[in-house]
Amino acid sequence: MRRKKKHQRLIAATIALIVIIAAFFALRLTSSRQTAKSQTTTVTVGSIGPDVQVWQHIAKSSQAKKLGLKIKVKAFTDGPSILRATSDGSINVSAFASWAYLEAYNKSKSNTGQQVALATTYLEPMGIYSSKYKKLSDLPKGATIALANNAANEARGLLLLQSAGLIKLKKNFDSASGNTNDIVSNTKKFKFKLIDDTTGPRIIKSVDAVLIGNTIALAGNLNVLKDSLYHEKINQSTKNNINVLATAKKNKNNAAYKKLGKLYHNKQIQKWIAKKYSGTKVEVNKPVSYLTD
């Protein structure tokens, strides 16, 4: 009888111990989940064209969760609107501008509107496209060439035209804000039409040639490596065209925002981007200081 009671007490003690251990681990799990939830930071990223899809993919990735980031992606139809939204806090980080584009924007703004680059992301070669001609040499005298009507991309386009041997620019040409007035040689008397660069693919048939950045080209089903007559090469002279993640100057030390750069360059993320866009978004994983050296 005593042995039976002893056995019953042992069973009861074991059950009690199991209950206590289970309760302990349940408490730890709940605490862990609450801690993880409290450590998750929500970041709103603004982008345009195909890059919206890139960031939507990143937002859903396991890599984002591991870094404690909940990413919301907001799509825009034009670049200036994205930077204005970054300045006024409607979004936290912009993911579309080249370094030159960001610099040109900063020059046009007061101290309160300044933005800073958080990380480099990629370079998308700008290309010269035509639906009428198959070679640059086929462009006739007096041909109309369309360029972006924003300072950074107008200057970038002119440098590309010079690289292609179509024009010559003055020696001290400003790569961030130079314009058609800086052309010193135009032997074929090309005419230049300034356009909203987001309309490039749509107006390709109404001009002799048009310069289009790759983000916009992809949105128009154009591949810069296959469809352009000529495109930028990846070298030191094009580093101003490297795209960056940017935020308002007051947020330059925000640790969560800086994680976006690390996330973008994750190997699995890069593998997806390369496959999705046929290698036209060339990864540039450099410190921001590289842009100013």
TrEMBL record:
- State the Gene3D superfamilies in the record: Periplasmic binding protein-like II
The source's domain of life comes to Bacteria
Keyword Ribosomal protein annotated: no
Output the Pfam families linked to this UniProt entry. Lipoprotein_9 (PF03180)
This protein's UniProt keywords:
Lipoprotein, Membrane, Palmitate, Signal
Q: Which InterPro entries match?
A: Lipoprotein_NlpA
Q: From the Swiss-Prot or TrEMBL record, state where the protein is found.
A: Membrane
Q: Which GO terms describe its cellular component?
A: membrane
**Membrane association type:** Lipid-anchor
Q: Which family does it belong to?
A: Belongs to the NlpA lipoprotein family.
**The protein's name:** Substrate binding protein
Q: According to the entry, what is the taxonomic lineage of the organism?
A: Bacteria, Bacillati, Bacillota, Bacilli, Lactobacillales
